[in-house]
Amino acid sequence: MKNFSTWILVMFMAMFWVFRIIVALSAQMHWDFAGITPLNQQMEIILLFVVLVCIILIVKRKLVGALIYLLAYGSYFGMDIVNNIQNLTNATETMNINLYMNLLISIIGMILPIAVLFDMLLDKNRKNHPKDKKTDWFYTNEKFDRQLDERADKNNYRTL
Q: What is the pLDDT of residues 97-111, one digit of tens each?
């Protein structure tokens, strides 16, 4: 994880994960947390554990972690986005702030995995061929190694 974008995305993932924990706890304790409610309480708890594993895989730069993260959040938040947009266009429900807040959180829940997947796909080439300026001069400079070897052979010090 050498990229700044990867660090930022992992921090956003962790913050969103903590936010989803707070939402799940507030729904379990019957508190009103700005009108945000989990879509399915049992699925929310399972998803929290799956996302924790995905965060670890993404930090280790595994593409499987990003795919599982996208599939998990896509299946959880994707249908909610479609249902809320249909409700807003048809106006079958009374439009209140809770509907808009849940739609906003669902959209954030879909944008974040897509951004993580794009970051992993764009960074995959750098992972296969890493460049580290601190050590590459030593390992890739064979000309310097040969010059050093020739110079070392010419040094004949007398010992008494």
A: 778 888 888 999 999
Cα separation, 97 vs 55, in Å, equals 31
The SS3 of residue 90 is helix
Q: State the burial class of residue 51 (Cβ atoms within 10 Å of its Cβ: 0-12, 13-18, 19+).
A: buried
Q: What type of residue sits at position 119? A: D
Residue 40 DSSP one-character state = -
* Residue 76 to residue 110: CA distance in whole angstroms: 9
CA-nearest of 119, 89, 118 to 103 is 89
Q: Count Cα atoms within 13 angstroms, Cβ side, for 156.
A: 1
Write the CB contacts of 34 (distance below 8 Å, at least 6 apart in sequence). 101
Model pTM score: 0.72
- Indicate whether 89 pLDDT > 80: yes
Q: Which three-class secondary structure state does DSSP give residue 1?
A: coil
- In this structure, are residues 87 and 93 in contact, taking their beta carbons and an 8 Å threshold? yes
Give the distance, in angstroms, between the CA of residue 41 and the centroid of all CA atoms in the same chain: 23
